[in-house]
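ok trying again, last paste got cut off:
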Amino acid sequence: MSVARLVPRLVPGAVLGVWAGLAVAVGATLMAGHWYTLPVPEISPQLAAALHDLRPQRDESRWLAIHVLYAKCGCSQRIFDHLFETDRPAAVDETILLVGADSSIRERAATAGLNLKQITREELKQTYFMESAPLFVVLDSDGAPRYVGGYTERKQGYDVQDLKILAALQSGQPGHELPLYGCGVSQELQDYLDPIGVKY
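nice, full thing came through this time. structure:
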């Protein structure tokens, strides 16, 4: 068989092979942030000092819950909804550390009485040593970090456990840190999770 006749027969198969390879690569990329646990910062004096600045000035003896959320992350959006739809603990100060801009979130936070600080993803990494969201952080009344981890036990879980974690810590029980599932925030982590630029 001549090359001229063979080439047309091979083209459909080659195209199908390339398409299948791309489909697998895209699918794997889109799921990477949800099927793998993401990094959390190590508890250190530097982290404690940076987080202390997020405490409201009115009373530094209260516990502080910090919700690190990313405006472009669907997993963070579920945490936003949870915060605005649940009764929040009266004896705990809460601050949303919002990466990116979202005016609706700012308005809802103000209505719910939650503090909100908006930062860039560069600030999140350089100042707070964080690269992923949604991340839950708890400081006790002395300003010591008692919990740094995720909100749910499973990937894309709907059983958000921030209130359970807070109650356990305040009653003196050791905190069981949950894995962090969600979105990469820093450019470096996004490049690692999505090297072909599909999701990010």
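cool. Helices lie at 3-35, 45-52, 74-85, 103-112, 121-128, 162-170, 187-193. Residues 3-35 form the longest helix (33 residues).
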